[in-house]
Amino acid sequence: MYPPCPFKLLTGWNCPFCGGLRMTHDLLHGDLMAGVNDNVFLVFLLLGVPLVAIWGRLRRRHGRSALPIPAVLAITVAAILWTVLRNLPGFPLLPAVTG
Question: What pTM was estimated for this model as a whole?
Fold first, then answer.
């Protein structure tokens, strides 16, 4: 059993990271579709983390801030939109992947 999400306990809403432990477990066991089913936002975020880290390192090497403000705002807006979307009635629109 996975620990409960504090945000969900307080608000009743799924946060952008809800399902992250299940997703990590599924990905570590090679089940990409189950990981996507658990939290598609985090799957794509995990794919982007190495790219953003390399980009930030290159920016710092040239004397700039690690991430420009528009990039930080884009990630924040995406997380907020994902939170609202996943808490709408009827979400998910597709049936769950079962295996």
Answer: 0.72
Over the stretch 55-94, which tens digit does the pLDDT of each residue have? 889 988 988 888 888 888 998 999 999 999 888 887 776 5
Could you say which DSSP state residue 62 is in? T
Q: Which one, of 53, 44, 26, lies nearest residue 82 by Cα?
A: 44
Q: Where are the alpha helices (DSSP H) in 2-94?
A: 6-11, 20-28, 32-61, 69-86
Structural domain includes residue 1: no
Amino acid at 94: L
Rounded to whole angstroms, the Cα distance separating 5 from 13 reads 10
Number of domains in the chain: 1
Give the structural domain span for 73: 6-86
61 vs 5: CA distance, rounded Å: 37
Ramachandran angles phi, psi of 70, nearest 5°: -60, -35
In a domain, 96, yes or no: no
